[in-house]
Amino acid sequence: xxxxxxxxxxxxMEKSEEGVKTAPPADNRYNWSRRVLQEICAFLILAxxxxxxxxxxxxxxxxxxxxxxxxxxxxxxxxxVNLGQPLGVFYRMHSVxxxxxxxxxx
Length: 106
Known about the structure:
Layout: E1 14-15, E2 21-22, H1 28-56, H2 66-72, H3 74-105
Antiparallel strand pairs: 1-2
Helix pairs in contact: 1-3, 2-3
């Protein structure tokens, strides 16, 4: 006995102008939530790219932090910033990749 879920049923498919079969339109609520998810992902991707590009090209705004210099001393603060910066770039790069995957699958 064969179980058919209707996903491959030709009667539930519509033909577009080129003759390619497309799925029937989904309800409005699903499209709205999908659009919101895509907009949020796009915003987070752009924000992450901006925060990734700045340190990747050598800008060091962390060195202007007087509190860090006073608390740790300049040489220790220099080491902390130079060790943490590649980790930050690595984190931002991978978060952009994960968000792009989410955006494509949404």
